[in-house]
Design a protein that fits this description.
The protein has helices at 2-18, 66-72, 98-103, 132-138, and strands at 38-42, 47-51, 60-63, 76-82, 85-94, 107-112, 115-121, 139-141. By secondary structure, it is an alpha+beta fold. The strands form two sheets. A five-stranded antiparallel sheet has the order 3-4-5-7-6. A three-stranded antiparallel sheet has the order 1-2-8.
């Protein structure tokens, strides 16, 4: 009798492991889908530019040449390009040169701890264009401090 019970239990456990029951348990986990994001860091000014996920893999950052920087009055800058189309130009300067940035057509985006970030929107149409809210939230200063804007 004991052998019959043991044989039945052993047989049931083998058939149960062969086909897993439906449901969330015992099913393979879905393949991981890493969250895509786009960010660019300016160590000298102490901020990170974080764009929406739709920029990931499509947009690349190209540092501005010194001739472009001197023409704009900026200390550092970057051009965000998708294919052959410039989407946005970010310019960084200190507070003493902030007027030079705005005089060349740039719009002040954020100001913190003596640094000023301004932008020139080259392309404001298309699926990669930034909305005003996305642009306002894109600059993240070191330490989580909020920047101020004087427009």
């Amino acid at each position: 009798m004991k052998t019959l019970v043991l044989a039945l239990l052993f047989g049931l456990s083998l058939t149960a492991s062969a086909t897993p029951p439906p449901g969330t348990h015992r099913e393979p986990a879905p393949a991981p889908d890493p969250m895509q994001h786009f960010s660019w860091r300016d160590d000298a000014a102490g901020y990170t530019f974080v764009a929406p996920p739709r920029w990931a893999g499509k947009v690349r950052a190209i540092p501005l040449a010194s001739a472009d920087l001197s023409a704009s009055g900026a200390l550092s800058g970057v051009r965000f390009v998708a294919g052959n189309r410039t989407l946005l130009v970010l310019l960084t300067s200190d507070e003493t040169r902030a007027k030079a940035l705005t005089a060349t057509g740039a719009t002040e985006l954020s100001r913190h701890d003596g640094h000023v970030v301004a932008f020139k929107a080259a392309s404001q149409t298309g699926s990669l264009a930034l909305t005003a809210a996305e642009l306002a939230a894109a600059v993240q200063w070191d330490g989580g401090a909020a920047g101020s804007v004087a427009r």
